[in-house]
Fold this protein.
Amino acid sequence: MFRHLEHDAIQLLGILLAALVIGQFSGRTFLSLLVGLLLFLAFHFYRLLQLHATLGNDQRLKAPFPPGLWGDIYADVRDLQIQSRKRKRNLVRFASRFREAAHALPDAVVLLNKARYIEWVNPAAKTLLGIRWPAHKGHHIAQLLQQPALLDSIHAADYSEPVEFSPPHDPARILSVQVTPFGKKKRQRLLVARDITRLHHLEQVRRDFVANVSHELRTPLTVVIGFLENLIGLDETTPIGQARRPLELMEEQMQRMTSVIDDLLTLSRLENDSLEAGMRAVDAPALLRAIVADARNISDGAYSFETEIEPNLWVEGVESELRSAFSNLVFNAVKHTPPGTRIRILWHLSDGAPVLVVEDDGPGIPQEHITRITERFYRVDTARSRESGGTGLGLAIVKHVLHRHRAELLISSKVGEGTRFTCRFPATACVAAGNHQARSSTGEGGGDDDIVSS
Ligand code: ADP
């Protein structure tokens, strides 16, 4: 560390010796030593001032450096200066590369400070969001983007879902904006806007295609089933009546196709229709009791049902959709478990939120399937599902219905122990019985179009 300390030690010894000699001759040893030490200190103080002045002017230290300790200090400071310049250069290079990359991005990037004022935007923000740089620097985001859902997302703590909207300056475009908190305390916001117009149109084409095909197939199928039923009803002595078995099999397959088409139409309706129109207070306890009664009847008492239903807990929603979701879960517990299975249905308030639990002690679902069973046509055991009359669309319908009601679906299962489906509604969906404007017409067989998956 102190490579040339001996130089300064020799210098100090020299001064002290000289002071002693002068002191001997002059008879004032103490004074002479004091003067010597002061000179030594003054010299080092001068060096210190010199270094301070050089660094203060932001000058680079260059060799040759003074001998001794000061030389070491100068050399060390010079090394630090070189390192810091190198780091600064790298940082500048990185910042300019980052800026180049951000400029080349087709997505709009907007940085907001913690008070939601614009700190920086890339050029794509002008095309996609109409935010110009540097003209809009320091503007509040609410002044420039009057999108309530986006502003909510910026203020809220949940940024999992991107917000989709059409910007007013270009209504033909559809944007998906993802808000991400950043910074040490995560108080700043990063907005990334993507143009999803093409994706949106493709998705619409897909939805229309499925809806149209399903619609077009529904009528001929009904006609064919009608004819088949007539033929099956013919006397066995007629030539056609003798082919009853194949006709029955044909009708069975046609019915299965009808179920799949009905479920596809249900999904199309869930994707395309707006929810608000059908929203009202739904008597969920009566709805659940009716579904359980149906399940009991269909299963001929082969399953044991346990219910714990909070009688006064109504929920805000679309009754036909809720009936579909709830019955799919209850009927699945019958369809996919052997006779003798215990099925428990629990409807209650949990932390202020209405929650439905449908659980069984059936064979369970292997873990690797759980994340996929809500996908369309995904079945754990395709052959068994078909045998039990399943379409593979039931849980996709459940997921869509719950999503539309801002509820979440949790699935937990253990092979050999059973399966539990939990539907957790938002606390705001909770309606106490008797505290609602529009009473629903729930009950056995009551209500609007049923959309129960077969
Ligand atoms: P499906 O028409 O086959 O019932 P779903 O979408 O309703 O279609 O269910 C998807 C798959 O999830 C089913 O095929 C079945 O394998 C599995 N599944 C659903 N509910 C249960 C349950 N309670 N127990 C075991 N497996 C289940």
